[in-house]
Design a protein that fits this description.
Keywords: Hydrolase, Metal-binding, Metalloprotease, Protease. Involved in peptidolytic degradation of cyclic heptapeptide hepatotoxin microcystin (MC). The chain is 29% helix and 24% strand. The protein is an alpha/beta fold. It folds into two domains: 272 residues, Rossmann fold; 181 residues, no CATH class. The strands form three sheets. The chain has an eight-stranded mixed β-sheet. The protein has a six-stranded mixed β-sheet with strand order 2-3-1-4-5-6, with helices on both faces. A hairpin with a 2-residue loop joins strand 14 and strand 15. Helix 2 crosses helix 6 and helix 3 packs parallel to helix 4. The relative contact order is 0.12.
């Protein structure tokens, strides 16, 4: 089995003022053929799985380049086209191949390209022809466009949010594509547009039960795979929105009906899917009212994982105004402040301005006397077995609150974001994390309670406040009943 595999991933917030250049990919993942690390990475799980099958099943694997950037604004056109063309040239050089496995994000936008993945996959199809199976793994926060569905044989999205199952889904993708190449199955995809923008965290009900249900259906009645494409509401593209995807073994009509049935089930649950959000003061009141245990508060409005700057100061300022202590907050992206802390050294107290730099939605900077608690060069945090760099990092104490400052923009993922800097979370009554839900895998088990806030920020909870220009209508919550 001769397999070509490569990866290109970026979650694009089209409302973000921060463009994504090739340097943004070099900061996260930018490796040539055969240079991918000996561990899975978020968008390149199919490549890692193919490597394992080269060892266990004798696959002849041709590895292409792998590119991934942290979420931000549109990718610069010339950089997207250059990375795309590198992958396509590597595929041409590898021909003939029996199968293609691609690891993509699914919400990548570049100047002039609303659907980068659809563009890339269409060009891949032109190279390999109609008979070579093409399998694609996508992040569920994708735009499941008609172009990419037409260019692929099988698409599978991660089921979990937080995304802890990337390797498991890549294994399933490889199984189906291999079986197709051997003539054992004939995959067909069915897509149902749920006509809504919503959040689907699988760390709580009812989404937890729904995912368990669809997983129990796979492998029966010719059902090869079921995915929920959550969509990415911060991408202003013509095919944004949640969609249900069912892959069957040559049962198109059955798959179409099942996709609609499951999609309408989720539509009926739309008001229950997203966790309730509290105001900043409501969340802080709940946290300070507890006499034991740690309350974790999620600031999703400033989630770097959704393309935000990760430097807003609204919650921290309010904590300082209220005199809250025995607390921690992070991360705040501020390379200048990190450098100043390194210049000062551990144990030094000095006047520091930090945060509030990227945009109006970041709030005003904090000006305070701080004490440098700990400094770490090239620090990482852990997520789903992957080490993610936050660059040089500093822990500071400001009015009894331990704050993590980082030089590489990233959301809160693992508890080692704090513990690597000597911050004992068990000693903190309130821990504020800048993340929407990926934090939950690590922080949920240590939390007495997890709360979600609707703080100001560049990722507003109410999507109706965003200036869309390409939004497909009708769609909920812009239209109360898009089914009319």
């Amino acid at each position: 089995m001769r397999c070509f595999t490569a990866s290109l991933g970026a979650e694009t917030n089209t409302f973000s003022p921060m463009l994504t250049s090739r340097d943004g990919y070099r900061e996260r993942l930018h490796v040539g053929p055969g240079e991918h690390p000996e561990r899975p990475t978020l968008y390149a799980a199919p490549l890692w799985v193919a490597r394992q099958r080269a060892k266990t099943k004798g696959w002849d694997v041709v590895e292409g380049s792998c590119f991934a950037a942290n979420p931000a604004g549109n990718t610069v056109r010339r950089d997207y086209e250059a990375m795309r063309d590198e992958i396509l040239a590597e595929l041409r050089a590898a021909m003939p191949v029996d199968i293609v496995l691609m690891g993509l994000h699914g919400a990548m936008v570049a100047d002039g390209y609303d659907d980068c993945e659809g563009d890339l996959l269409s060009r891949i199809r032109e190279i390999v022809g109609p008979k070579v199976p093409v399998g694609v793994e996508l992040d569920p926060h994708c735009h499941l466009t008609r172009q990419r569905v037409a260019a692929s044989d099988v698409i599978i999205c991660y089921k979990e949010f937080p995304h802890t199952d990337t390797v498991a889904r890549a294994e399933e993708l490889a199984d189906i594509i291999e079986a197709q190449a051997l003539g054992q199955v004939k995959p067909v995809m069915s897509v149902f547009d749920m006509r809504m923008l919503n959040g689907f965290p699988t760390s709580r009900q009812p989404m937890r039960g729904f995912v368990d249900k669809i997983m129990s259906m796979e492998g029966k009645d010719g059902i090869l795979s079921i995915s929920v494409a959550h969509g990415f509401g911060y991408g202003d593209v013509p095919e944004v929105g949640a969609k249900m995807l069912v892959v069957t073994d040559d049962r198109k009509e059955f798959g179409d009906a099942l996709a609609e049935k499951l999609g309408r089930e989720l539509w009926d649950l739309r008001d229950e899917l997203r966790p309730p959000a509290l105001s900043i003061d409501e969340a802080l009141d709940r946290g300070t009212a507890r006499n034991q245990g740690t309350v974790v508060v999620a600031d999703g409005a400033d989630n770097a994982g959704g393309g935000a700057g990760g430097d807003s100061t609204f919650i921290l300022r309010r904590m300082m105004e209220r005199g809250i202590t025995e607390a921690a907050l992070g991360p705040i992206w501020d390379p200048v402040a990190v450098r100043m802390c390194f210049n000062a050294g551990e144990g030094t107290s000095f006047q520091l301005r930090f945060g509030g730099k990227v945009a109006v939605t970041s709030g005003q900077p904090i000006d305070a006397r701080v004490t440098v608690l700990k400094l770490v060069r090239g620090m990482t945090q852990t997520f789903a077995g992957e080490l993610r760099s936050v660059g040089d990092a500093a822990a500071i104490d400001v009015d009894g609150i331990a704050v993590v400052l980082i030089s590489t923009r990233l959301q809160a993922l693992g508890t080692d974001l704090f513990t690597n800097l000597g911050i004992d979370l068990a000693q903190r009554r309130i821990v504020v994390v800048k993340s929407t839900n990926h934090f939950f895998a690590a922080f949920g088990p240590i939390a007495e309670e997890v709360l979600y806030t609707s703080a100001p920020g560049p990722l507003p909870r109410d999507l109706r406040t965003l200036p869309y220009k390409k939004l497909p209508r009708p769609i909920w919550p812009f239209d109360e009943n898009p089914w009319k």
